[in-house]
Amino acid sequence: MRKPAILGGMPLFPEGLPFARPPLPSFDKVVERLRPVYETGMITNSLLVRELEEKVSSYFGVAQTVAVSCCTSGLLLCVQALCDGFAAAVRSQPRVVLPSFTFSATGHAVVWNGGFPVFAECNPETYQLDPEDVATRLDGAGLLIGTHVAGAPCDTEALEGLAKQAGIPFLLDAAHAFGACARGRRVASFGNAEVFSMSPTKIVISGEGGLITTDDENLATHLRAARDYGNTGDYNPAFAGLNARMSELHAAVALASFDELKEHLDRRVFLAESYRDGLAELAGVRSQRLLDDTTSTYKDYSVTINAEEFGVSRSFVATALRAEGIDTRCYFSPPLHQQKCYSPYNPGKLAVTEKLSAEVLSLPIWRDMKNEDAEKVISALWSIHQDREEIEAACAV
Ligand SMILES: *Cc1c(COP(=O)(O)O)cnc(C)c1O
């Protein structure tokens, strides 16, 4: 076997292998779409945004899609709407149950609404919000939020059941999950609403952008006003909305990117399967497990590194991969309940989340990555394990 770069071997990627590279649609296709609309003079929240909303609704099989400026603003407006029952001037301080193992924006949407985030545990193998733990934290809650972590659907069935039992709405952060399926349906139609991101590292991309999907017509009507300052046409808003509109320029990129969705997802699944096969027998390395009857977009391909079994700890593995030119991320570390801005909401120890967060490592995966690139990342991990003792010693210095 080859010698790892960290021990003086030749790096596998002298030019570097990036963690992600946005699959931008061709500029010509974007301009072709944009030009006629641009010439009308309506450059925000107009024809292309409507076209995008309609195409996305029909792809997902949902009644309504509301395009917004980004996923964060979409989450913010959904939390506002769902906690207040679409009302009103006087705001409650809702308790909102959500995962700690998610991206910070999920929590920010709660805090920006004056809510109190109640962080719940995740499952150590699927990384998804743990319904049993959620059940113990729902007392007094006004909203439940789930995240489809890394593009793999969370346990929508159990979580929908819990929300229903508690009589509260259920919102999904679907930032990673454009094109994922669960229980024979596309992600987009679970809970009261789902919110997607189109920022550059996500699946369908627009530069900046978000999409809210829902089967609730009243909620969609409310959100269309909410993204436009709360204005319903008479400039006398009933609640404080935002400017969270999507511009036509972004919608043009989104439409061109959406056209390439199938080939994009197929590539990700192919690369993910290479990783899954190539790492299946490697001691101490475990790939994220999908729940039964689900498919993932593989927005991220994440594994856990068990330091004892693998012989090298997660952070040294990342260092050794970097020496090979391979860029990785530790999504999500630290988890929300350990981030500085959430210290006022400390739920105490979340042992499963903290362990996962210390062991998780996301590997490069992007549409135009070559098959042999994934093979080389796999062989890098095998050789790090092979030379584990020397590597631990070298990194520890
Ligand atoms: C990227 C991301 C967001 C934020 O999306 P923006 O469109 O950048 O606002 C929210 N939640 C999760 C889980 C994300 O990964």
The CATH architecture of the largest domain = 3-Layer(aba) Sandwich
Following the backbone from N to C, one meets helices and strands in this order, namely: HHEHEHEHEHEEEEEHHHEEEHHHEHH
Distinct ligand kinds: pyridoxal-5'-phosphate
Q: What is the approximate shape?
A: globular
Distance N terminus to C terminus?
A: 24 Å
- Residues in helix, %: 25-40%
* Whole-number mean pLDDT: 96
CATH class of the largest domain: Alpha Beta
Give the amount of beta strand, in percent: 5-15%
Total beta strands: 13
Number of helices: 14
* CATH fold-level topology of the largest domain: Aspartate Aminotransferase, domain 2
Strand order, largest beta sheet? 1-9-8-5-4-2-3
Biggest beta sheet attributes: 7 strands, mixed
Could you state the CATH homologous superfamily of the largest domain?
Type I PLP-dependent aspartate aminotransferase-like (Major domain)
Structural class comes to alpha/beta
Short description:
This protein has a seven-stranded mixed sheet with strand order 1-9-8-5-4-2-3, with helices on both faces. A three-stranded antiparallel sheet has the order 7-6-11, with no helix packed on it. Strands 10-12-13 form a three-stranded antiparallel sheet.
Describe the protein.
- The chain is an alpha/beta fold and 397 residues long.
- The protein has helices at 27-40, 47-60, 71-84, 104-111, 131-135, 156-166, 217-226, 248-259, 261-279, 307-310, 314-323, 351-359, 371-386, 388-396; strands at 64-68, 95-99, 116-120, 141-147, 170-173, 181-182, 185-186, 193-197, 210-214, 285-287, 294-295, 301-305, 360-363.
- The chain folds into two domains: 27-258, Type I PLP-dependent aspartate aminotransferase-like (Major domain) (Aspartate Aminotransferase, domain 2, 3-Layer(aba) Sandwich); 260-396, Aspartate Aminotransferase, domain 1 (Alpha-Beta Complex).
- The strands form three sheets. Strands 1-9-8-5-4-2-3 form a seven-stranded mixed β-sheet, sandwiched between helices. The chain has a three-stranded antiparallel β-sheet with strand order 7-6-11, with no helix packed on it.
- Helix 3 (71-84) packs across helix 4.
- The protein is globular, with a radius of gyration of 22 Å.
